[in-house]
Input
Amino acid sequence: MIRTVAAMILAAASVQMTCAGESPEVNHSAAFVQGEQWLDTDGNPINAHGAGMLYHDGRYYMYGEYKVGETVLPEWATWECYRTDVTGVSCYSSSDLRNWKFEGLVLKAHENPDHDLHASKVLERPKVVYNASTGKFVMWAHVESADYTKAAAGVAVADSPTGPFEYLGSFRPNDAMSRDQTVFVDDDGKAYQFASSENNATMYINELSDDYLRPTGRFTRNFIGASREAPAVFKHDGRYYVLTSGCTGWDPNSAQIAVADNVMGPWTVWGDPCRGKDADKTFYAQSTYVQPVQGCDDTYLAMFDRWNKTDLQNSRYVWLPIVWGNDGMPTIPWRDAVELPESKK
Ligand code: GAL
Output
């Protein structure tokens, strides 16, 4: 009896991530429990922070900050800019979003102290997109100088989703600062970089060239003075959504969803999509990406980092399915666990 009640409580608090509308049987042994250590297929902790995903040729690829070693606060720090040495960008692959195979570091740190990817610098929020016309995989990431004044985007390319990625260099898109960032590819193949700019006060949406390697010069300023970070962009029923966090460093704050009919705006702020326990603190986590589940209309996985600011390599993850309301707006209800789907094509 006690076991049955416990099972019922767990069932109420967890959800299986199948196509929206299906009511599957829940197998808790296969669920990811929020904030616990998640293991790859070799049994090692999944190490992909500030991650993004790419679905390509029947497989999901996840790219993230590979954080190992001591977390340090630079001597000059006037704010909590804790960091680990740059080691590179990790890649994991999966056919089902549940079993993740480590594909190694697809972009590696560089030994030259002047290089953007030297251990002493900062490399965050890598996002990889596929360019169907060039056949290249293109990575954009936030790169910083050791003193955190660079505020630039770094770009790398590869012939395969598992790399190796060749680093092309960094710049400020449209001569504007670029920190927390993501890249979104629209259905027509055009790509856009969303970046926290103007000292994180304003979000720039930078249209990218056809090869996705640089900005075209066309951009918009959004959420002016509102200090939004950690952008995650997705499209549903012809409308665009951007999920962001506030700007409090590694500490949690309230999430926000905005909606637009045009990817470059104007955006209408809808409010905090999070629901349930600790929703006002984004469940002690911060947005990083929203991945549509393949083969399922309306099914999107919202990915968050639960940072451990003084021991960053022990930061964890929170993944939650988006729930669509009758008003067409997304909410993100808390679940203790999420069971990810078997292979969906
Ligand atoms: C956060 C940002 C993280 C990281 C951190 C550093 O606001 O979202 O990606 O840059 O600040 O303090």
Remarks:
- Confidence is low (pLDDT under 50) at residues 1-12, 23-28.
